[in-house]
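Justification of computing resources. Each target in the renewal requires a structure prediction run like the one illustrated here; the chain below, 107 residues long, is used simply to show the kind of job we budget for.
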Amino acid sequence: MTTLSEATRTTSSTPTAAAQAPHRPASRLRSQADGMAVASFILGLLGTLVLNIVLGPCALVLGGLSLARGTTRRGRALLGITLGAIDLLLLAVLTTTDGTVSWSIGG
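Resulting structure tokens:
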């Protein structure tokens, strides 16, 4: 048999725990979104040098997802999207001029 004070403690602690629960996943999603924004920037930057056919679309997708999830690193996400688009544009230019999908330095 529970006493009145035990019932009060049980019911009073439950709303507090329920009120804090939604904040933890939101901060977790935001930190994941921040990581995606940084990854988008890095992949977009690397894509201008190597594997632009793969890294460009990855940068676009990660940048878009990080913006959709509300990243605090909005500038990096936008820069990653821009670099991903440049990667695909570079791929189109290389394909039309040289008939290849990679850089060629020299003769």
